[in-house]
Amino acid sequence: MRILAIESSCDETACAVVEDGVKVLSNVIATQIDEHRLYGGVVPEIASRRHSENISAVVSKALTDCDMTLSDIDAVAVTYAPGLIGALLVGISFAKGLSLASGKPLVPVHHIAGHIAANYISHEDLKPPYLCLVISGGHSHIVEVLDYTTYRVVGRTRDDAAGECFDKVARTIGFEYPGGKFIDAAAKRGNEKAFSLPQPKVAGSEYDFSFSGLKTAVINLVHNSQQKGEEVNADDVAASFQKTICDILVKKTMLAADNLGYKTLAVAGGVSANSGVREAMQVACDKRGIKLYLPELKYCGDNAAMIGCQGYYDYLAGKRADESLNGIATLSLENI
């Protein structure tokens, strides 16, 4: 089965053709990073406009790259939630048009489910049930993947997402947007023990995250030093911050795995590309005899291949949409 998938939940206009949920025949992404970098973050209105300008060419290239036409496609999958509502609507509208014009079924896909499914592309032996840590610019979740389309969220952030924290800390110490890759590179040069940073906890919620206090601590550290005329080593701040956030993610995830009895763990989302996170998770899993699955770096960030993969499983589960499909800015995995 061949799925044409569209992803436009944030600032990447993406289309892919995926066969049987695991074979990526084409994967095209038009990024807007250079433009949003001017503003230090994603501007929703600009993102929506660029999606409108790019989507037709991106879909055409995805089909051309695998030498196919719409008649060779069995279904159209599209991200419908969660995300920036204007951005989502561009992809949804285009996908609905393709579905109506071709008579192909339309499959609605949850963005976080897509991130989780990215691991199926890289690891065909990964099968539910397992535990998954989803960490990205907008989401931080610990999820029980009960089967390919059923989830139970056992932990989530109560404030900032991990990726958002990376970006805001990066901006504070003078790095460009998006900040994750710059902090990752700087952390390799810095001293992770240079600064003692807090590891906030959420009372009564042992698996939930809170990153706002950590972000604020770094901002105060840098600003207080600047006010005193003292120079702060950006590499040391980056290394200390990255070590702290890795410790938080590992501790919470390992606690959930131990308490819930999971010996299989996956990590997904844009922050899963961070080398510190990957290394820390691997070390922790090796100590406990847990099998760890990590997506290939090219499937960590937003892309349409992951939507095509999850769209395949959603299609098999009977999920369909019609012309009334709408975008949803916020939607829990447990409500799909």
Overview of the structural elements:
The protein is built from 10 helices and 10 strands. With 336 residues, the protein is an alpha/beta fold. It has 2 domains: 2-116 and 301-335, ATPase, nucleotide binding domain (Nucleotidyltransferase, domain 5); 127-298, ATPase, nucleotide binding domain (Nucleotidyltransferase, domain 5), CATH 3.30.420. The strands form 2 sheets. A 5-stranded mixed beta sheet has the order 3-2-1-4-5, sandwiched between helices. The chain is globular.
Could you name the key traits of this structure?
336 residues; alpha/beta; Nucleotidyltransferase, domain 5; 2 domains; globular
Query: Can you summarize the main beta sheet?
Result: 5 strands, mixed
Query: What percentage of residues falls in helices of 4 or more residues?
Result: 40-55%
Form type: globular
- CATH class of the largest domain reads Alpha Beta
Can you tell me the CATH superfamily of the largest domain? ATPase, nucleotide binding domain
Low-confidence segments, given as residue ranges, are none
User: How many distinct folded domains?
Assistant: 2
- Can you count the beta strands? 10
Using only C-alpha atoms, the radius of gyration works out to 20 Å
Distance between the termini: 23 Å
How do the strands line up in the largest sheet?
Answer: 3-2-1-4-5
Element pattern in H and E: EEEHHEHEHEEEHHHHEHEH
Question: Treating each run of at least 4 consecutive H or I residues as one helix, how many helices?
Answer: 10
CATH level-3 fold name of the largest domain: Nucleotidyltransferase, domain 5
Q: Which structural category fits the helices and strands?
A: alpha/beta
CATH architecture of the largest domain: 2-Layer Sandwich
- Indicate the proportion of strand residues: 15-25%
